[in-house]
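Can't attach files on this board, so I'm pasting raw text. These are the components:
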Amino acid sequence: MLAKRIIPCLDMTEGKVVKGIQFVTFRDAGDPVELAQRYDLQGADELVFLDITATVENRNILVDVVRKTAEKVTIPFSVGGGIRTVSDMKLILRAGADKVSVNTGAFKNPQLITDCANAFGSQCVVLSLDARKVKEGRWNVFINGGRTDTGISAIEWSKTAVSLGAGEILLTSIDTDGTKDGFNIELTKKVSEKLSVPIIASGGAGKLDDFVKVLKEGKADAALAASVFHFGEYTISEVKNYLKKKNIPIRN
Amino acid sequence: MIAIIDYGIGNLASITNALNKLNIKSIITDDVDEMKKASGLILPGVGAAGEGMKNIKERKLDKVLIETVKRGKPFLGICLGMQLLFEKSEEGQVECLGVLKGMVKKFRKERKVPQIGWNQIKYQKQKMNTLQLFSGIPNDSYFYFVNSYYCIPEDSSIIAAKTIYGEDFASVVVQKNIVATQFHPEKSGKAGFNLLGNFARNLLC
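---
Top answer:
Structure tokens for the assembled complex are below.
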């Protein structure tokens, strides 16, 4: 049976891991390659790197981190942040990443999804989407690091992205991100039920039961978290053992 | 020396990295002579079958691949590299290499396609070579899969392991010198490294 995935997220700026609270303030969390190795050993199913202040100058630092990570870890990982062109994506994949996530770049230029999927296959194109509730039952896509409301429904955009060739959706709820009050179950469930590709739920992991809830009720295929892992509240194996006890299929 | 065949597709770095960690010498190449010299070949690959076959043909690697495999050189096909060994893929109705008899079809029973993530393999039949291949890897171990299509070998006795994703499918096939896995051993943690190591050790002795 296909296992549900537990994915630590490494938000980076200038080659260091940081963790934002509702996308604004940052605390230092350490060396990305070291953390990546630690999570691999703890049983992480995959890793996500996001370059949150992606700039052209930072691109070389990011590529270097990707290369070093690829040499050290034994599990798949995706990299995102500032991907605007097929050649941006190629650079990251060549350095050893398995997938690339696109966000603002794809929203502004949806053709990017199709071009990347045609060049490398849908399986390595992850649509990363930041959603915020604007009224009851309605979430909009926010771009530019969660600062700009596009006015477009998150559900509609994720459907479009899949039809353009995205092979997976990384769905971050801005409302719950960094709060540790639990994932956004309502949104995750809606998106997961509407789409035919796997959904990675992100934003709000705090308690062990939050993971159970988003994978069961939220119907997510994977759950992503950052601070609970970075600051040692839980190890990956603690989360996975708990999920196992709750009869969720998990890789040992 | 193992030759990892470069046909302009897939994450070749991850296989090299995995072999490096196992202290197994490898070379990434599209050179026919290098392929002939190598003690074993790995055909990696992600992406679409059509694109894969087109790239193989453009580099004029199809004939040499078929010949080398038929001559008995140890061969490992990974993911798309497994699918391309069969006769035909439903993905774009592409004619593939045809060194193994059978078809490649799309998942129909699970709603979420591609299958992305860790799934278990169940051993089918303990042949001598599969015993070696799976040495140190318990039955039901998890491996990392990323696939929308799967292989249906004409001769089901070549299926060494199966996996369930809505339906049963062949996740490992072994026929003489050919080993092919639908999952990515190079991305499958300890189990995957064991399998790669077993493949490489078998061809060294």
